[in-house]
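User: Fold this, then the next.

Assistant: Folding the first:
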Amino acid sequence: MAAPLAPLVLLLLALGRPALSGAQATESAAAAPHRRFEYKYSFKGPHLVQADGTVPFWVHTGNAIPSADQIRITTSLKSQKGSVWTKNKSIFEYWEVEVTFRVTGRGRIGADGLAIWFTEEQGLEGPVFGAADKWNGVGIFFDSFDNDGKKNNPGVIVVGNNGKLLYDHQNDGSMQALASCQRDFRNKPYPVRVKITYYQKTLTVLINNGFTPDKEDYEFCAKVEDMVLPSQGYFGISAATGGLADDHDVLSFLTFQLTEPGKEAPTSDAEIPQKDKEKYQEEFEHFQQELDKKKEEFQREHPDVQGQPADDVFETVSDRELRQIFEGQNRIHLEIKQLNRQLDMILDEQRKYVSAVTEEIAKRGAGSPGQQGQVFQQEIETVVKTQEEVIRQVKEMRSSVTDALSSISGAQHPGAAGVYETTQHFNDIKEHLHVVKRDIEHLVQRNTPSGEKQKCPELPPFPSCLSTMHFFVFVAVQTVLFIGYVMYSLLPWSATCAAKFTVMKNTSVSCLSVWRNDKSMQSILLL
């Protein structure tokens, strides 16, 4: 809207103030510098890496891993360092870079962080977020870990250096920072975007926190005025991990040359010699011919794929959101099915219990006449009624679960209703779940006994296997048998002893001595 209104504003000012000076008009027209994209200082996926694993016009070191759509500066492992730097120095004074990256990790706290550089020399490796210390230029640090314990991390810090200072990593560079802002850039739903502008000796940092897919939703972070940087330098980006680890992925690094409006913007013909242009043109034609050949070969090998759009391979934001909604509905569907199975089990148990009680009533009804039998029958009838009420409540809960399942089944088929219909289905599911919960609580309260608990009927006493009379008879028989056995065992010994005593009564040998010499008799008596 600003561009169409500009001529109208100027016309009104001219009518109101005809004597507007030329200097003021020039100052109002000087709005934004001329931007020109520099491909030799940029990279962006897809098809980011060449066949030999290198990135055109860039060099990577350390643990950096280039891929087709991004460059992973460090993996989520401890003590990792990596960096990516331009091969050639920039030849323009003012510039602007737009960097898109992701910092993801499993823990609530990450380490160490990521840095964007513009330095006079390449800092391929070092202790400052994976790059060299004592740099001559500027570094924009995205520090994840709070080393000084001030609880000001994650944060963005702008640190300048003239090639002589050592970075104070233990204090997070708090005394060396030219500007800073506290922003959380870890584990965001969308990539984090940073726009760094150096124009007329002023460095400005804008950041998109990654909460929305809008690429131009930037907010102010830091600004440093009267900052002098080298006229030529290298662009780079580095990262490092420590005791904690994060994945640091850079999706794109776009560089633009800024030219003041009063100066003529340089053309590409003035920078590229004629020989280089011819060389690049030949390379382009050669690559174009190879690409056409590969396309023809692919079409001959895969005739079924012809005519299909290539955009179907990629997932849009709306498709991803719908997929997440359907996955959540599927999980709810599985939980409710599990609840339905549990209710079926409870219902079967209650039916078995009711049938068992009914059979017990039929058995005891004929054999227990009188007042006591009537009281017992009333108690059993009360139990049966309670169980029937339980069955009825369970059936109602089952019907509620069935309604919830039908609602989910209808919500899983995307139609023209859109997001509002999906929200209505979720509300219905919540309402049914509340009904189920209320019914279960009511059922538990109803079945809880308020007074005396009902006792189960006592079992009749079991008859004893051995009576007292039988026991004494058994003991008497055993005693008689034992005495008879002893007498039977001593009978041969008594006869032998009498015969020997008659023969040897003139010798002073007694029956006791005979018994002492007869070992068999001793063993019999001992038994």
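Now the next one, as you asked:
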Amino acid sequence: MSSTETAKMGDILATEADLLGMIKEYLKFGEFEETVQIFDKECKSKGKLVSKPRGNALRDSKTRVIQEDLLSSFDDGDHKVFFELWKENIPSEGKDLDAEIQGLEFYLHVHFTIFPLRSHPVRQDRTEFEERISHFKQYLETRGAELSQNAEFLPYYALPFVPFPAVHPSFKDLFKDTWIQQLKGRLDKFLTMTLKPSKTPRLMTLYYISNVEKENLQLAESDRRLSSCLRKFNKMQADYHNLIGITAELVDSLEATISGKMISPEYLQSVYARLFNNQMRQSSDFTRPGTVSTQYGFFQASSMLRASIAPPRPKEVPILPSLDYEKLKKDLIEGSDRLKTLLLQALRWRLTRSLPGEQRETVLQAYIGNDLLGRYSTQQKTVLLLLRSPNEIVRQYMARLINAFASLVEGRIYLSHIPVLLKILMETLRKEEKDSLTWENVLVCLQKLSLRRSQQTIMIADDLIGWLTDELQDSDCLSDYTLVYYAALLMNLCLRTKGKKKCAENAKLVLKVLTDLLGHENHEIRPYVNGALYSILSIPSVRQEAKEMSVEEILHCYNKEKNQDFNRQIEFIIKQLNSAEEEGPESDDEDEEDDNDEDLLETDLYREELLQPEHGELSGESLLTTEYLGIMTNMAKAKRRSTPLPQSNGDGPLQRPVTPSSHRDLTTGATI
């Protein structure tokens, strides 16, 4: 064997030994003790070499010195030495990406900022404090800027504007020994974990690197697709600009014809060429006026334009068969739980899956005209009481049907005339498990009903504002979907004079909850939070409380965002806060009923179905038309009044009740 072949074989054996060593290292890391023994035995019997793991040395003296220096600088308040060591020894990717490290770093900056005031409680070193405040401001505007979206850290952004933080209610806890010891313990634990070498097996490291490479390939593919989309967008934008230019020229041409100037066929030919990218027939010669070819060219061009914008022809919509509602209501009350849920599902599907317009209105009018939910019933048991059923699936499907009613204008009117409805809904909201589908549908239903003033009055009287405020204190436990409806419901109630007065009874808590929500990562709630803040600040006692809480300083922290609409809303709120107006007259006129007159049948009504029909079991429309076919009970369409959609006051906060689906449509132009 040549020397070259010998060296090559040696490399292969070394690589194999290294690979086997990594496998053994991983097995030990995973505590596969019996597997390790068998692995060693087989390698030995086959004469395979297993390299020893490249062990990581334990913390050496240098590591201990670094940790001790950091803790010593913490105790001495030496921020320059501390952050120099911090920058050199803490991995930058952790500081930039890990939320826990970012939070620790934030509190360390707070600690070093107020250290001069803590170290000399009697003779406070104001000069040193002012210098550190300037450093803290710089940090807030750079590395700490993104934490302004987190409610936990938001109050500290007002620290630079508070002259005596040691006596301020929001900051006095920072000067207690317990706060310092807790922060130091957190720092010590973090340094112990961070400065020690990693024990991650090399095999896992290789796997991680492989995944990173795979993600890089996926990222490259995404970039390629993005470039393709950008090219299409740029072409679309260019076509749009071209169309605007042609439109402007045609307007000029029309004005010229009024003045008696002639338009040449060559000009028309050039316009058609630009408009249709030379797709017109070559036989269409516009340079010969009066010819059949020219007339056909005009006809072809105008036909193409009209065809591009012509709406589709409406199809004839069939009316759904009538049902026997007396039998339906009887089985909904007396039938088995399985039958009840199948009927509730079928009735909801008939309403939500019907075509918008005449078909859906006919279905709803049939439900209302036959008093499906028992508005006029004198019986003790009604369909509505299924919300109190011991069966969770029955309660869920009842809540989903009521939510479908509340999504339609006429349905909300019908529901608002059922005296016991709101009592049952609010009772269910407080009892049901949070984030269950039953709970979600009841919450959304209440929010939609809060568009009607009569329902707002009942909700306010039942202290729903207080309940919402308590729930929103722990907003991180709520899903983004439910948080939006929480905030929108609270705002609708706060827009009423009675609602504002209810907030004024516990103004400090309400203001704290609302200002904390401004920093929530879910920006969809902001219009409703801003609307609620603007509304309650019209009460003088609430404004006074807000000034004592330094709410203006907190609001100023948000004025630096890139979202100009949001910044303008914050300016409106600050202006309201500093106004000297007295409380306006009572304006809760019950005669002014609806503040919103639109259907809100959002896509959330079509969420997953727990109930699935068994083999051979009827469900949906087939169940209704097979077992409950009735005589002609379809009601004639009711004439609906048309009211403008709710608008905000220019760029200011919302000042009329809305529901999230309608507000999304107003702001994005989306349709459902």
